């Protein structure tokens, strides 16, 4: 339910965008800086993860704290829309908005750290008879647990997509007062987000009390019943290497993010990677030699797979300009993608559990490369040929819809084995810490992919048409002549590098989960 709440957060995204555009005088540079600061709570996930392990018995209180922060953020926005004058009597509307923007991610990350660790705790190590559960069955249980987490997040996104289609129907033709009333209603509706996470805690408490009464009815003494229900908690002592390293990571990211040094992004990436690898090395000391080999091999495969560059924004610009994909059609593609991702999680659940991560990565690499071919083909006129052969039925939009429906599940199928591996490897007393550090490592792979995308776009220059808003004169002409080679290069890199990483792990002493 915490994950579901996180998935529904996009409910206010469109309203927030229009509120800033229409009612606040904040420049784009300030908003870019604010976006940086809004990302800082996620940088804090590593020290927060270790803190959660240290105060694990109070985890419900942390969920309540996160919910309070989310509620405060939403209520601030309601106040700004409903009675701006009263809010400005205390401080400026811009200051209130900044507070709302910073409160929301802080609330989400506090809840997310707890939820990640609870997905580890939810999978038992012993069966009802007190016997250890075999590794294969536990792997399936972890995969199921992580699948349900992704289903909750994506399901929340699907609900938001459907709700936005309904809530914004005809909003363009509304009067200003009606628009504001609609915006207020959406923010009021968003108060369900923190409520859902709180209900998750309440539901867990109800289930525990129900099971306790059931055990008493079966003749257990109260103390025996509590031992049956309460998972033994291994005492966690502060790991000052992890806390210190995490704080260095935060300080480094903050310091570099606020500077304008040349190659700033590269310096942040290299420094962050060094710190995270150091923290991983400290965590690996609690694992045996065999587990370390599995962790290293799996980490390398996942990192390379997630670090693959893409074609960048130029591909979307080309689809809008050349294929005439408008906002509504792109929204439809997004909804189809989210829906099919949900379907794919259920279809591939056993496949993800029964196959190694190396096998899954090879399968997904081959499949995603194959599904990308029609998009590359459309750049060279594939849709024109298919439309001519089918009387206009199989046109660009038809190909895009089918390709999105087939390709969308792959990204989520790749995520679940990775999360299940992290959960399965995490020691009981360091589950939140382990999850936070390994998630940071896998997220750095995405940063590497973004840098790779930047480099590809520097080699293959793609520009969209930019016109002066006053004179209407074209200041930058559209040029998609190098998009084809860019897409082909991204396709080849995305195919060869993950396969090479898997091959290298297989021929070395390393293993993959």
TrEMBL record:
Lineage: Bacteria, Pseudomonadati, Pseudomonadota, Gammaproteobacteria, Chromatiales
Bilayer topology term: Multi-pass membrane protein
Organism from which the protein derives: Thiocapsa imhoffii
Highest taxon above the source species: Bacteria
Keywords of the record: Membrane, Transmembrane, Transmembrane helix, Transport
Positions of transmembrane segments: 23-42, 62-82, 147-168, 180-207, 240-261, 267-284, 291-309, 329-348, 357-380, 486-505
Pfam families membership: BT1
Name listed for the protein in its UniProt record: Folate/biopterin family MFS transporter
Annotated localization: Membrane
GO cellular component assignments: membrane
């Amino acid at each position: 339910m915490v994950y579901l709440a996180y998935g529904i957060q996009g409910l206010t995204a469109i309203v927030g965008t229009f509120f800033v555009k229409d009612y606040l005088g904040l420049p784009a540079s300030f908003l870019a800086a604010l976006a940086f600061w809004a990302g800082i709570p996620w940088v804090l996930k590593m020290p927060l993860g270790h803190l959660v392990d240290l105060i694990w018995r109070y985890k419900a209180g942390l969920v309540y704290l996160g919910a309070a922060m989310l509620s405060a953020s939403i209520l601030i926005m309601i106040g700004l829309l409903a009675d701006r004058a009263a809010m400005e009597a205390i401080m400026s509307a811009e200051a209130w908005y900044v507070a709302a923007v910073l409160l929301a991610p802080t609330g989400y990350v506090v809840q997310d750290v707890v939820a990640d660790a609870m997905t580890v705790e939810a999978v038992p190590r012993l069966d009802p008879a007190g016997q250890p559960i075999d590794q294969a069955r536990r792997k399936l249980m972890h995969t199921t647990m992580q699948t349900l987490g992704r289903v909750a997040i994506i399901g929340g996104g699907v609900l938001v997509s459907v709700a936005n289609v309904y809530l914004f129907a005809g909003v363009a033709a509304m009067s200003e007062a009606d628009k504001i009333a609609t915006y207020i209603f959406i923010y009021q509706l968003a108060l369900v987000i923190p409520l859902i996470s709180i209900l998750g805690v309440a539901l867990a408490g109800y289930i525990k009390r129900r099971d306790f009464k059931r055990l008493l009815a079966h003749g257990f003494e109260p103390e025996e019943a509590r031992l049956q229900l309460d998972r033994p908690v291994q005492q966690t002592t502060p790991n000052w290497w992890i806390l210190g390293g995490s704080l260095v990571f935060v300080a480094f990211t903050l310091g570099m993010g606020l500077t304008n040094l040349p190659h700033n992004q590269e310096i942040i990436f290299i420094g962050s990677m060094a710190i995270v690898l150091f923290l991983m090395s400290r965590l690996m000391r609690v694992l045996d030699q065999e587990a370390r080999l599995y962790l290293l091999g799996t980490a390398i495969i996942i990192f390379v797979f997630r670090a693959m560059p893409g074609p960048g924004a130029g591909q979307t610009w080309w689809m809008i300009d050349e294929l005439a994909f408008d906002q509504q059609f792109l929204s439809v593609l997004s909804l189809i993608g989210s829906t099919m991702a949900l379907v794919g999680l259920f279809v591939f659940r056993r496949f993800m559990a029964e196959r190694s991560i190396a096998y899954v990565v090879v399968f997904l690499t081959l499949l995603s490369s194959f599904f990308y071919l029609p998009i590359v083909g459309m750049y060279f006129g594939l849709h024109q040929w298919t439309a001519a052969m089918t009387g206009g039925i199989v046109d660009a939009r038809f190909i895009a819809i089918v390709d999105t429906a087939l390709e969308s599940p792959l990204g989520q199928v790749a995520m679940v084995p990775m999360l299940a591996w992290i959960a399965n490897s995490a020691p009981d007393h360091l589950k939140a810490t382990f999850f936070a550090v390994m998630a940071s490592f896998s997220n750095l792979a995405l940063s590497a992919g973004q840098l790779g995308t930047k480099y590809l776009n520097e080699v293959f220059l793609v520009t969209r048409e930019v016109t002066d808003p006053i004179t209407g004169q074209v200041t930058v002409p559209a040029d998609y002549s190098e998009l084809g080679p860019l897409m082909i290069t991204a396709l080849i890199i995305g195919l060869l590098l993950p396969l090479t990483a898997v091959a290298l792990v297989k021929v070395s002493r390393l293993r993959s989960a």
